[in-house]
Amino acid sequence: MKHVKLFLRLFCLMMLAAGCSKKTVNAKESERGEQTINNFKVVGYMFSSGDLLAKSAELDFSRITHLIVAFINPDASGNFAAVNGLQALAKKAHDNNVKIIAAFAGGNPPQHLKELIKPANRKTLVDGLTQLTRTYNLDGIDVDLEGDFVNEHYEAFVVDLSVSLKKEGKIMTAAVATWNSTAYSQKAIALFDLINIMSYDQTGPWRKDQPGPHSTYVAAEADFEHWNSTRGIKAEKLVLGLPFYAYGFGPDISEDMNYGSLVAAYPGSEKVDQWELPGKGTFYYNGMPTIKKKVGYAVKKKAAGVMIWQLLGDAKGELSLLKAINDEALLQLKK
Hints:
GO biological process, one term: chitin catabolic process
Strand order of the largest sheet: 1-2-3-4-5-6-7-12
Signal peptide: 1-17
Family: Belongs to the glycosyl hydrolase 18 family.
Number of domains: 1
GO molecular function, one term: chitin binding
CATH superfamily: Glycosidases
Helix content: 25-40%
Distance between the termini: 46 Å
CATH class: Alpha Beta
Largest sheet: 8 strands, parallel, barrel
Order of helices and strands: HHEHEHEHHEHEHEHEEEHEEHEH
Mean pLDDT: 91
EC number: 3.2.1.14
CATH topology: TIM Barrel
Structural class: alpha/beta
CATH architecture: Alpha-Beta Barrel
Number of helices: 12
């Protein structure tokens, strides 16, 4: 009887072990799995110019969940030109379990978009954007209409685009600026699956008389609280924007520089948020400590995740901000 009982105990232990075991996974799969379980998204933009597939060789797909290609805009008639490498890039993204989205408009969009979102032309633009997702097998569209492009026609356009994309099983996201919050109607905002908060560019080369940080931690908190509390958007829809670039202020300094170029030129600059060149000027940006602090805040607030402008501005190896984002998110999510 003792042998039978012992056999039964061993059998039960083996069954429990089998039930708890998973297939062997590599480090990248494990990391992606934890991100998915915790539903923390890492959304990254990249420019649409050039050969997209070739440029994608610089991306670490294991560290992002969504890739947004920006910006793909139609001509004045609403027609979209072919995008070199986009279909192959979409396949590569999907092979790596990454959603891929096309962004249109942008910070300096063609003026004819104001005409295309008017009632007489709206269907042409909506149909064109929807067809774009079909042609290149994309997962959705990112609406990056900003400033005075968020006008009296914005809401109706967003409503129509949402209906069209939902029929195709596609998602619709938006990039928003807190300073322009009153322009976005509650009805329009509610239709987006994810809202990317552009928590940067509080100043820049266009404000030479206002030198200083353009993307502080305090501003990130304020921006998130505005959209979450004041505008009443659920945290799980909000994605906190992070900059991968610096702005320079001074008499003899570059007006802007990618983070990767900055830390390569000035060792140690990754540890701080500003770097002074005596007699020339000062760069302002987000170093690794601030990026990690913002990621920790996003996790604490149960945000959808973080967004990056833009991925190819990163450094390589241990100085990578994307690596720091992933490491910090996984660390915080384990708590």
